[in-house]
Inverse folding.
C-alpha cells in the first residue's frame, strides 16, 4: 500500500511539474519580453505597452470567484478544461499583423489586447486551483523545497525553449518570426491538460453553506499574518513590475540587438532562477520566511541599481546588464520561496482556495500595476526631459534609469516592511547569514575541499606541534 501511495505521489508530482514547465514556457513565449518586443515593433508606445501588461493581469480577479467553485467542486477538471481550450483565444494576437494590414493600426492594437486578455481570462480560473492542488499533492515537510524543484524544472526547460526562440528571432526580426513563437507557445499551453491525469484533486466541501463573498474576504483580512503577507507582496511585486517589461526596451535603446535583449532577459534569468529556486526553498523550509525575504530583497535591490550603470553599446556595458539580471534572478527566489512557505503556514484548510486566489490576484495584479506605472513614469519623464539626439553617458535613456532607481527604492520599502512579519517562530536574516557562514566553513574544512585546502596551504610544523 505504501509503494502504491509513493508511486501515486510521484506521478502527481511529475504531472504538476510538467504542467508547470509547459505553462512557464507558454507564459514567456506569449506574455513576457517577446510580447514587449513584438508590441514595440507594432509601434506601441511605452505607455501602451505598460497598459498591455496591466491588461494581461487584470482578469486575475476572476480567481476570487473561481475559488468558491474549487472549494465546493474541486479544481482538477477546471484546470484541465482551461488548459486544453485556452490556445484558441490567442488567434487575435497571432493574426494581429494581418488584421493591421487590412483594417489599420487601431484594429491591430485592439487585436493584441483582445488576444492576451482573452487568454489571461481563460487561464485566470486555474490560479484559484493551482496552489491548493500543490498543497494536496506535495508532502508537508518538504513542500517549499519541492515547489522550488518544480520551479527549477520549469525554468530550465523554459531556458532551453526561450534560447531557441531567441536565436530563431534573429538580429532584426520580421513580424512573422514573432507569430511563429506565439503559435508554438499556444500549442505548448494546450498540452498542459494532458499531464493532469494522476494529480489528486483538492478536498471539497459541496455541502458547506455558501457564505457571501464579502464575508469570506473580511475573514481573510482579519487573519493578521496573512494580511501582512499580502501587504508585503503588494510592495515587493509592484517594484518587480516597474522594471520587468521595460528591460528589453532599455537594452535595445542602448544599441544592442533584439536577439541579445531576448537572450539576456529570458534564458539567463530563467536559468539562474531555476538553479537557485530549490536552494531558497530548502532555506525557507528549514529556517522560515523572515531571513530569506530580507536577503533576497537586498540582492534584488542591487540588481536594480546595477542596471542604472550601463552607458552605451559595449562589452562592458553588456556585462553590467547581464550582472544586473543575474542578481535579480538569483535573489528573487527569496521573495518567492519565503512567500510560499509563509502562505502554506498561515492559511487554514477552510477557505484555502479563496486565500490562495487572493494571494495570486495580488501578486500578479501588482506586477501588472507596476508595469502600468512604469509606462506612465517613462511617459512623464519624456514630457519634461526631451533627450538630445547626441545624448551620451547617463543622460542617454534617462527615463529608464529613473525607473530602475524608483524600483530599487520600492524594494527597500518592501525589505523594511518585512520586519513587521515577526508573528511566526522564524529566525532573522542576521542569524540565517551566520548559519550559512558556519555551514560554508564546515563544507570547506571537511572532506575533499578540506584536504585540497590543506594541501594548498599546509600548516607550519611548529604550529602542528602546538
Amino acid at each position: 500500500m505504501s509503494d502504491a501511495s509513493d508511486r501515486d505521489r510521484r506521478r502527481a508530482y511529475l504531472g504538476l511539474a510538467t504542467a508547470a514547465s509547459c505553462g512557464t514556457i507558454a507564459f514567456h513565449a506569449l506574455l513576457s519580453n517577446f510580447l514587449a518586443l513584438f508590441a514595440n515593433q507594432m509601434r506601441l508606445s511605452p505607455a501602451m505597452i505598460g497598459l498591455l501588461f496591466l491588461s494581461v493581469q487584470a482578469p486575475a480577479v476572476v480567481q476570487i470567484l473561481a475559488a468558491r467553485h474549487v472549494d465546493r467542486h474541486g479544481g482538477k477538471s477546471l484546470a484541465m478544461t482551461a488548459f486544453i481550450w485556452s490556445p484558441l483565444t490567442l488567434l487575435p494576437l497571432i493574426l494581429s499583423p494581418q488584421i493591421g494590414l487590412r483594417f489599420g493600426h487601431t484594429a491591430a492594437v485592439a487585436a493584441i489586447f483582445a488576444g492576451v486578455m482573452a487568454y489571461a481570462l481563460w487561464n485566470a480560473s486555474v490560479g484559484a486551483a493551482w496552489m491548493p492542488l500543490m498543497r494536496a499533492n506535495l508532502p508537508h515537510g518538504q513542500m517549499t523545497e519541492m515547489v522550488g524543484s518544480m520551479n527549477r524544472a520549469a525554468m530550465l526547460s523554459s531556458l532551453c525553449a526561450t534560447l531557441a526562440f531567441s536565436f530563431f528571432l534573429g538580429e532584426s526580426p520580421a513580424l512573422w518570426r514573432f507569430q511563429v513563437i506565439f503559435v508554438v507557445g499556444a500549442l505548448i499551453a494546450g498540452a498542459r491538460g494532458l499531464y493532469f491525469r494522476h494529480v489528486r484533486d483538492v478536498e471539497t466541501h459541496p455541502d458547506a453553506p455558501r457564505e457571501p463573498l464579502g464575508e469570506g474576504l473580511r475573514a481573510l483580512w482579519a487573519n493578521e499574518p496573512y494580511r501582512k503577507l499580502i501587504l508585503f507582496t503588494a510592495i515587493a511585486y509592484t517594484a518587480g513590475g516597474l522594471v520587468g517589461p521595460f528591460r528589453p526596451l532599455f537594452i535595445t535603446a542602448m544599441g544592442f540587438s533584439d536577439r541579445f535583449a531576448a537572450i539576456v532577459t529570458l534564458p539567463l534569468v530563467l536559468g539562474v532562477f531555476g538553479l537557485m529556486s530549490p536552494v531558497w526553498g530548502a532555506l525557507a523550509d528549514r529556517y522560515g520566511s523572515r531571513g530569506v525575504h530580507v536577503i533576497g530583497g537586498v540582492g534584488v535591490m542591487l540588481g536594480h541599481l546595477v542596471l542604472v550603470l550601463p552607458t552605451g553599446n559595449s562589452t562592458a556595458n553588456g556585462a553590467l546588464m547581464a550582472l544586473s539580471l543575474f542578481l535579480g534572478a538569483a535573489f528573487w527566489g527569496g521573495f518567492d520561496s519565503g512567500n510560499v512557505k509563509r502562505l502554506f503556514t498561515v492559511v487554514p484548510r477552510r477557505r484555502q482556495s479563496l486565500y490562495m486566489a487572493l494571494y495570486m490576484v495580488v501578486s500578479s495584479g501588482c506586477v501588472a500595476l507596476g508595469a502600468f506605472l512604469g509606462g506612465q513614469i517613462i511617459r512623464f519623464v519624456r514630457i519634461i526631459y526631451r533627450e538630445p539626439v547626441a545624448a551620451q553617458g547617463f543622460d542617454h535613456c534617462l527615463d529608464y534609469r529613473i525607473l530602475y532607481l524608483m524600483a530599487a527604492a520600492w524594494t527597500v520599502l518592501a525589505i523594511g516592511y518585512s520586519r513587521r512579519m515577526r508573528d511566526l517562530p522564524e529566525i532573522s536574516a542576521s542569524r540565517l547569514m551566520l548559519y550559512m557562514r558556519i555551514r560554508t566553513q564546515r563544507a570547506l574544512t571537511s572532506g575533499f575541499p578540506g584536504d585540497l585546502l590543506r594541501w594548498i596551504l599546509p600548516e607550519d610544523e611548529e604550529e602542528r606541534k602546538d
